[in-house]
Amino acid sequence: MMMADDDKILLAHGGGGRLTNELIRSVIISALGNYTLSKLTDSAELKIGQTDICFTTDSFVVKPLFFNGGDIGKLAVCGTINDLAVGGAKPLVLSLSLIIEEGLELEVLRKILHSAAKAAKQENVEIVCGDTKVVEAGAADKIFINTSGIGLKLPKADVGFEKIAAGDKIIITGTIGDHGMTIISHREGTKFESDLKSDCAPVSEICGKVIEALGDDIKFMRDPTRGGLAATLNEIVNQTNLGIEIEESQIPVNPTVRAAADMLGFDILNIANEGKAVIVVSPQKAQKCLEICQSCEIGKEAAIIGQIIQGTEPLVELITMIKGRRIVPMPYGRELPRIC
């Protein structure tokens, strides 16, 4: 059931929280739904002959276009690579399509494309096709990018909501909230001086290594982008009917990010990430999984933050610093639109 304003799309419908989830389920899935689409995974798993591939698509409308740690070009490539990687695939090729607003400076476009090409090359991924459209001034916000990606499913990968069981451990591969707070720090009306830097980066190395080493002990992976860690964990409980406990003291957060979030009144659990993965792993292999994550450059601050539980209700509960408990709800979606 949609919200009271269900006759119109709100900006909050793009925030990655409850309103996004309702829009997808009640409007998009009801119109287009099929078995593969209805699984709501980051990438679709398809069999072509005897070959298992993953296929994904994403659109990027981030504001501003350039930010500390990246830009819309790097973000588009890394975001699509990450959707393939957390699905258990080795990213191979991407498409890249541009919707450009009349008046965009060619030098800006060149910088964005150079950044996208560099990010793809570093991951040995080729951009092999695309499309370009130009719209009138005022019909877009400088440039929007759509990317699609194809990856080869790794032989040992067997991930999905249905694999998750009570007792499994939850790992986050690094500090949370870096990207979202960096973007908001650049926005008009909230600009402030800080050394915040987006975590925009590919997670394919971490995902590939843990799958290769641990196989089906890796139950599920997802990159916690829009809606942050809170949205990802709530998706897990909604899909599995299991509960989750996480410990506030174990969640890695950059002190500057936490200070900025506190100053602006944001819940750090709701803030977007663009270079992290949530990994659900069997309890027997959790420590080994953590060690593999920490051996990678972008996983040095990885941590086991909680576990899946057989609760009376499918809820996400946070054990606070003072050992109290609070429910972590699915974000509404209004806090940080257009962060990716």
Describe the structure.
Helix 6 (204-214) runs antiparallel to helix 9 (286-295). It is built from nine helices and 14 strands. The protein has helices spanning 18-32, 35-38, 72-85, 106-122, 178-186, 204-214, 228-240, 255-264, 286-295; strands at residues 44-48, 51-60, 66-67, 70-71, 89-101, 126-135, 143-153, 169-172, 218-222, 243-247, 278-281, 303-309, 316-319, 325-327. The radius of gyration is 19 Å and the shape is globular. Strand 13 (316-319) and strand 14 form a beta hairpin. With 340 residues, it is an alpha+beta fold. It has two domains: 42-153, PurM-like, N-terminal domain (60s Ribosomal Protein L30, Chain: A), CATH 3.30.1330.10; 161-327, Alpha-Beta Complex (Phosphoribosyl-aminoimidazole Synthetase, Chain A, domain 2). The mean pLDDT is 93. The strands form three sheets. Strands 9-11-8-12-10-13-14 form a seven-stranded mixed β-sheet. The chain has a five-stranded mixed β-sheet with strand order 1-2-7-5-6, with helices on one face.
